Amino acid sequence: MDAFERRSVIALATVYLFRMLGLFLIIPIISISAVDLNGANTALIGTAIGIYGLTQALLQIPMGMLSDNVGRKKIIIIGLILFALGSILCANANDIISLIVGRAVQGSGAIASTLMALLSDVTREQNRTKAMATVGISIGVSFMLSLVLGPWLYSLIGLSGLFYLSFISSLLGILLIIWMIPNITQHTFRRDTTPSLSALGRVLKNTQLGSMNVSVFLLHASLTALFICIPSFLIIQFDFPLLNHSWLYLLVMGLAFIGMIPLVIIAEAKGKMKQVMTAVMFLLSISIMLMAFIPSMVLFGVLLWVYFVAFNTLEATLPSVVSKLSPVGYRGTAMGVFSTHQFLGAFIGGVGGGWLLQSTSVETLFITVGAALFIWSLLLLNQPAPPTLTSLAFSLDSYNNEDIKELSLQLINIQGVEEMQLFADEKTAYLKINKQQLDRDDLLRVVPQITL
To answer: How many Å apart are CA 431 and CA 422, to the nearest integer?
Structure first.
């Protein structure tokens, strides 16, 4: 990357980090802190935790598409303003309904797809995968920081203070977008990052993509449901003070990150994606169900570590599988649908988990969530293994229409090029290649500008 691209990518990744921190900081403490709000009960607290997922799911793809017409930066700034407004509403909420409304407004600033589209505008083809990975890392870091910092910051500034911190972070994000990102007046529609309505039906009909969507839905539903009860469970069951939760999460998340690395390597480098995904889905289910019966704080911490090893492994591998399974040239649409399921999972997990905890017990919540994941694990056993293909994109700026037709004929005859789409309107070629079978010399002869 050159200096311009690095600056833009770092700024966008930081905005994403601030945005997700603002949403996640309350997760490890809200089930305890919100009980003092007027009208609060467990079901409504669960709704407050997960409601952001509903507005995110409904608005992120439309806002991404709208940015094609009105401008990426404008939509991102509007989204951050909505997030700031929601944070102020939450900080001043005296009753649970006001908190729910504020969280919904926070989520309505759905800028994920627009950020990815802007990332596409400010990076070259050969650097786009690296740039997207940087933003992906910022999302994972934001969640880890939220679990670790949430209880500690809550002890210092309270629930309102956390939301004011979110307000400040959104203002910083706006400044980064205004000062660090150039004004792009011509937005190129890039199908690897931007959803396409024409491809939506094709993506939704793909049963393998559907399996990945259900997987991420259940993954985030489980996370939201668990954190409705885990903070209070640690205090009541094990007499573990809230201030010390930060140390537990720091230890668990740090070791979970180490634990996931070999699993991701086995899945990606060794071609064992299906086996690893199915195994960690089983680990998720079993660890959650066992939480209902563990009398020891140490053993509960071990189960929480197992859960996050499995969770982090799926968080790292599921997007990769979606990328491989998506129709060639339409990864942006597939990822948009995938993210929508992720946010819907957070919403259903919050609402359903809160209702279940109020109606039954903590143990029933653990068993129900674990059983749902166990059943899905069994169904995954019958799914075909995802293909070991790699996506590749390169620019066609120097090609006229006749050149593009000739290039298409040449590419289709290269061994290892499994699928391709060449879009004259976008001036971009998208390929799916099998690296084990690819005739590299032949491909480089036809398109010497690419990097393999």
So the answer is: 9
Please tell us whether the domain made up of 1-183 is placed in CATH 1.20.1250.20.
yes
Instruction: State the first-to-last Cα distance of the chain, in angstroms, to the nearest integer.
Output: 16
CB 338 within 8 A of CB 322: yes
The one-letter amino acid at 284: L
For residue 85 the two structure tokens come to 């407004």
Q: What is the pLDDT of residues 389-420, one digit of tens each?
A: 777 777 787 788 888 888 888 888 888 888 88
CA distance 149 to 75: 29
Residues of the chain with CATH 1.20.1250.20: 1-183, 195-387
Encode pLDDT of 216-255 as tens digits: 999 999 999 999 999 999 999 999 999 899 999 999 999 9
Using alpha carbons, list the distances in angstroms from residue 246 to 152, 187, 215, 269. Answer: 6, 43, 28, 34
Kindly report the number of other CB atoms within 10 A of residue 3's CB atom.
7
- Distance from the Cα of residue 189 to its chain's centroid: 22
Spell 78-100 as b/e; 16+ CB within 10 A means b: bbbebbbbbbbbbbebeebbbbb
Measure the CA–CA gap between 81 and 46, rounded to whole angstroms. 25
pTM (2 d.p.):
0.88
Topology of domain 195-387 in CATH is: Growth Hormone; Chain: A; (1.20.1250)
pLDDT at 86 over 90: yes
Q: In which order are the strands placed within the sheet that holds 428-433?
A: 390-395, 428-433, 417-423
* Neighbouring-strand partners of residue 433: 390, 417
| Residue 405: CB atoms within 10 Å | 12
